[in-house]
Amino acid sequence: MPKALKAGFETYWKSYGQGPRAALMIHCSLASSAAWGPLAGHLSGALDMTAFDMPGHGRSAAWDDRGEIQGVTADIAAAFLEGPTDVIGHSFGATVALRLAVERPELVRTLTLIEPVLIAVALADRPDVARDHAIESADFEAAMIAADHMAAARAFTGLWSTGLPFDALPDDQQKLMAAQMPFVGAGEPALFHDAGQILAPERLSRVSMPVLLIDGSATLEIVSVICDGLHQRLPHASRAVIMGAGHMLPITHAQQTGHEILRFLA
Asked: What is the pLDDT of residues 141-194, one digit of tens each?
């Protein structure tokens, strides 16, 4: 699969499907473009999908602190688009997709946000839930402060992974996840403090394309609060909840997720 400079960053990408509509897929933290394989199999008849590796992930170049990570990744995403495209993002990738839609709406035909983690929404709407999330994230934050990236990866995956225990992963995968913790930390200004000003007054109310918000019934409470808040702010948004699913639903519940996306696109 190809690799080239996108918005000045060496980026790897792969393609899925042969459908009549172009789509761009933006994965979550600690994953890669390969994570879209299960879901892409259910969308292949409808979409011609491009999925790229974010900085510091997969086969793309290591993250080099060249700017604010959400904004840099949104610029990379925009470099793949030549016209209106169906954009699908998961977790941190969903916040990148939303920022792309806010900043470059002419490039986004429809927007699918799977488990978006724009924590600033919960801080604004439900500070009680945001405080609870801070408590459940305390081990991760302490490990990041101590620069113990292995402990940080263990705590992070305990909250956000498919449920497989971190210590059950192969050693090389554990080390890779630990090496990616600085990328996760670099996202804090965007996710907690809305560095991209996504929530600035009237900005989301001007997002005119159809939006689908997807979360799992067994996800963290803060994600459901974020989806509620975005649903209220986006004028053309709809909701779908995947029963029994947690945060990694594009992998664990690919068929159900694909069904909801296809229904939305239709």
From this structure: 999 999 999 999 999 999 998 778 899 999 999 999 999 999 999 999 999 999
Residue ranges of domains in the chain: 3-125+188-265, 127-185
Q: What one-character DSSP code corresponds to residue 45?
A: T
Neighbouring C-beta atoms of residue 71, cutoff 10 Å? 16
Lowest mean pLDDT among 26-30, 31-35, 166-170, 245-249: 166-170
User: What is the pTM (predicted TM-score) of this model?
Assistant: 0.96
Instruction: Give 17: exposed, middle or buried? Use CB within 10 Å, 0-12, 13-18, 19+.
Output: middle
Taking a C-beta distance cutoff of 8 angstroms, is the pair 117, 191 a contact?
A: yes
Range 135-162 burial, b when 16+ CB lie within 10 A, else e: eebeebeebbeeeebebbbbbbbeebbe
Cα Dmax for the chain: 49
- Mean local confidence (pLDDT), 86-114: 98
Contact 70, 47 (CB under 8 A): no
Instruction: Report which residue type is found at 27.
Output: H
In this structure, which amino acid lies at residue 154?
R
Strand order in the sheet with 9-16: 3-6, 9-16, 47-52, 21-26, 85-90, 108-114, 211-216, 237-242
Q: Which CATH number fits domain 3-125+188-265: 3.30.450.40, 3.20.20.80, 3.40.50.1820, 2.60.40.1120?
A: 3.40.50.1820
Q: ∠ CA 203-207-209 to the nearest 5 degrees?
A: 170
